[in-house]
């Protein structure tokens, strides 16, 4: 059989396959974030597939383009084929308002607009007019400009016109230098009865907001979490199911009444329907923790909210495990997610109690809990065999001896061992295991070398067949040889981070660039971070051009010598590959917190 005759002119065997069969296959494409790239690839294969793809696009009721920054020209080309879109998710970084408006209509029920760095507040008014049946609306803004001025009036009109709105989310990406430069008042703002879910950044949306009794899900970003805020929510939201409070203090709370204490935590006992609780203090600007909250508050919380299924507590340095964290593990029998960060007084004692009470734990995160040891981890994974996510970042006493138990977890898909004491020997154990790990972080595991990566991926275990995301940042002994092993072994790999790997060079870039051509059975690499890899020079610029790195959507190059090629030449790459984001600002993969300052 001659395979060289396949082309879009229609003389291949593909043209003889009935269109309805192709259409049925396309309906099975599962990952919404990959559907557009998949369809574009298929449309180039034959005329039958091209026609089928066009038909399939017109039948889609939802589209998720959050995985990459599509440009206006591309979106306009697709929007002509869309008919009745109900769910739309867009990365708006490279989009203008006209292109966004072109995909909106009366049928839209869910609209998520991310990275809105170039949109004016007028888009809110337009959405209110053109999408009256909207149920879910989510914005992600930057506060580097004056676009939020007058936003409250537009929002008021939207809430009045969109009478079916159930969920409103407004996120703002903010840096310290601009914290007080752009705020908009929402004084006395009251949400309509239909709204059940709100997610707001009250650092920018200033003023008092009336939380009605119909609210079931609340997520707030604040300057400071206080007893007053928590008590108010608990008092006026009796139907509350999920509560997330995040604060980012700019200074350490000085007055006792200006911080969360046991009083605020205890007030949540009145929320009888509460199943998910997140109280998080981020240390973005200052080193601050909840020093006034003790184990007593946690005991009262666990006794009054026994239906909790998810608990995330970050920054509770005053809570010990003997009575505090242990009480949650003992009382909340339906607990699925347990996430503690900066729990400096949490020890193996709390973990040992997990084995005494049966519960369906699927996600267990202990970050910066320096007293946790391998013995505690072994007891945890032995009694909780359904675990899917484990995170022991900066738990410095975690080492190789617990990896044998972890590698036996047949449902484990995500494992973070960043800043732990694991070595090459531990990688050998993990590489032979049965855990179907798709996401692995070995960031700052300084004892791991090329040999460890070979042990990890060169064995007969599952991880080499399932791994899709690998973080080797700050693993200083990694060289180009490790990259070659990764490319050869990991057919599912789509994301690789080698930040601060000083011995990774242009040779590794060449190996990665050729991956899609030399290993056609492998998935295309989508995201690559080479931040501060001084061995990557201007010579690797040629690998950014077509046909290399097919499918690449994000590339981080700050502090590598590759950045010396200059903006003009990088702009040339952008013109060739408008879907590729080149980050020169040192952001983590996907620029979740730094997109507002980008050029490309």
Largest sheet data: 20 strands, parallel
Number of helical segments?
21
Q: What does the oligomeric state look like here?
A: single chain
* Helix amount: 25-40%
Query: How many E strands?
Result: 24
Q: Estimate the mean pLDDT confidence.
A: 85
Question: What's the CATH C level of the domain at 468-600?
Answer: Alpha Beta
Query: CATH architecture of the domain at 468-600, please?
Result: Alpha-Beta Horseshoe
Morphology call:
globular
Distance from first to last alpha carbon: 46 Å
Stretches with pLDDT under 50, minimum 5 residues = 1-11, 177-182
**Could you name the CATH topology of the domain at 468-600?**
Leucine-rich repeat, LRR (right-handed beta-alpha superhelix)
How would you describe the overall organization of this protein?
InterPro entries: FBXL15_LRR, Leu-rich_rpt_Cys-con_subtyp, LRR_dom_sf. One of its GO terms (biological process) is SCF-dependent proteasomal ubiquitin-dependent protein catabolic process. It comes from Artemisia annua. This is F-box domain, cyclin-like protein. By secondary structure, the chain is an alpha/beta fold. Among the domains are: 59 residues, no CATH class; 133 residues, Ribonuclease Inhibitor (Leucine-rich repeat, LRR (right-handed beta-alpha superhelix)). The protein has 21 helices and 24 strands.
Comma- or semicolon-separated keywords:
disordered N terminus, 20-stranded parallel sheet, 17% strand, 600 residues, Leucine-rich repeat, LRR (right-handed beta-alpha superhelix), LRR_dom_sf, 21 helices, alpha/beta, FBXL15_LRR, two-stranded parallel ribbon, Leu-rich_rpt_Cys-con_subtyp
């Amino acid at each position: 059989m001659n395979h060289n005759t396949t082309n879009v002119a229609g003389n291949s065997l593909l043209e003889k396959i009935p269109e309805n069969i192709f259409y049925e296959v396309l309906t099975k494409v599962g990952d919404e974030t990959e559907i557009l790239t998949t369809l574009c690839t298929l449309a180039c294969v034959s005329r039958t597939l091209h026609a089928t793809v066009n038909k399939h696009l017109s039948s889609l009721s939802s589209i998720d383009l959050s995985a990459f920054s599509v440009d206006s020209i591309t979106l306009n080309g697709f929007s002509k084929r869309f008919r009745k879109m109900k769910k739309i998710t867009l990365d708006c970084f490279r989009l203008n308002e006209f292109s966004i408006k072109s995909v909106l209509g009366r049928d839209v029920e869910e609209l998520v607009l991310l990275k809105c760095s170039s949109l004016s507040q007028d888009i809110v008014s337009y959405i209110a007019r053109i999408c009256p049946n909207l149920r879910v609306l989510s914005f992600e803004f930057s506060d580097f400009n004056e676009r939020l001025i007058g936003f409250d009036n537009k929002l008021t009109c939207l809430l009045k016109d969109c009478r079916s709105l159930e969920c409103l989310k407004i996120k703002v990406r903010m840096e310290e230098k601009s914290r007080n430069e752009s705020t908009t008042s929402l004084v006395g703002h009251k949400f309509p009865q239909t709204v059940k879910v709100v997610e707001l950044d009250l650092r920018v949306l200033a003023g008092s907001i009336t939380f009605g009794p119909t609210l079931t899900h609340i997520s707030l970003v604040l300057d400071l979490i206080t007893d007053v805020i928590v008590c108010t929510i608990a008092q006026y939201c009796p139907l509350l199911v999920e509560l997330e409070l995040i604060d980012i203090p700019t200074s350490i709370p000085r007055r006792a009444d200006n911080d969360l204490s046991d009083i605020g935590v205890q007030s949540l006992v009145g929320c009888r329907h509460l199943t998910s609780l997140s109280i998080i203090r981020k240390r973005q600007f200052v080193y601050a923790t909840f020093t006034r909250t003790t184990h007593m508050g946690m005991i009262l919380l666990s006794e009054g909210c026994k239906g909790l299924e998810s608990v995330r507590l970050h920054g509770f340095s005053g809570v010990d495990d003997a009575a505090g964290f242990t009480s949650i593990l003992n009382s909340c029998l339906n607990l699925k997610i347990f996430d503690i960060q900066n729990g400096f007084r949490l020890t193996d004692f709390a973990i040992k109690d997990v084995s005494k009470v049966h519960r369906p734990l699927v996600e267990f995160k202990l970050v910066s809990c320096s007293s946790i040891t391998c013995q505690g981890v072994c007891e945890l994974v032995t009694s909780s065999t359904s675990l899917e996510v484990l995170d022991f970042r900066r738990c410095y006493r975690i080492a190789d001896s617990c990896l044998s138990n972890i590698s036996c977890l047949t449902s484990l898909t995500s494992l973070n061992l960043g800043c732990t004491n694991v070595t090459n020997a531990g990688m050998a154990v993990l590489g032979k295991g049965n855990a179907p790990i798709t996401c692995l972080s070995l960031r700052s595991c300084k004892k791991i070398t090329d040999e460890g990566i070979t042990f990890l991926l060169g064995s007969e275990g599952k991880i080499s067949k399932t791994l899709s995301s690998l973080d080797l940042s700050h693993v200083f002994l990694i060289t180009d040889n490790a990259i070659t092993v990764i490319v050869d072994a990991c057919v599912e790999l789509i994301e690789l981070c080698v930040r601060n790997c000083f011995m990774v060079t242009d040779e590794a870039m060449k190996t990665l660039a050729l991956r899609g051509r030399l290993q056609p059975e492998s998935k295309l690499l989508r995201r690559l971070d080479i931040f501060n890899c001084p061995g990557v020079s201007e010579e690797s610029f040629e690998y950014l051009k077509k046909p290399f790195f097919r499918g690449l959507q994000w590339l981080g190059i700050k502090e590598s010598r590759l950045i010396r090629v200059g903006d003009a030449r990088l702009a040339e790459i952008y013109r060739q590959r408008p879907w590729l984001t080149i980050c020169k600002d040192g952001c983590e993969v996907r620029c979740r917190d730094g997109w507002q300052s980008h050029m490309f």
